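Hey team,

Filing this mostly as a record. A colleague (T.K.) asked me to run one chain through the structure pipeline before their review meeting, and I want the input and output archived in the tracker in case anyone asks later how it was produced. No errors, nothing strange. Just documentation.

Input sequence:
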Amino acid sequence: MNKNEIYELINQNPVFFLATCDGDQPRVRGMLLYKADEESGIVFHTGIMKDLYDQVIKNPKVELCFNDFKSGTQVRVRGELEVIDDNNLKDEISAHPTREFLKPWKDSMTQQEFYDSFVVFRLRNGIAVTWTMKDNFAPKIEIML
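Output structure:
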């Protein structure tokens, strides 16, 4: 797969698993992608009250795992997360039709409280590795995103 095909797979399969570290204990949880492209990187969000936030602030090195079950392809992307502190982007995300679930949370506080409690992460310059059953034993090929 090339870089464009990887971004296409990621966007078509927006539910992914995120691995972080909590001291010496790995932690994995399901997440929902906001968007992914060469310019923006891989963008998603959470609340600062989540353990995920503390883990990433302490150690921004993570791995994301996307699965296309139709084709049997898995894409893992490793790299470092950065916080995007952009209230316009937070507004864009919270107003997006796929983010209706954020509305009650956002409406329960002032706009500034929402901005302060909502964090957007981006992974840029990640290294992707693909996997299928067909190439299960083949050497891994790293693709720079």
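Quick notes for T.K.: The radius of gyration is 16 Å. The longest strand covers residues 25-37.
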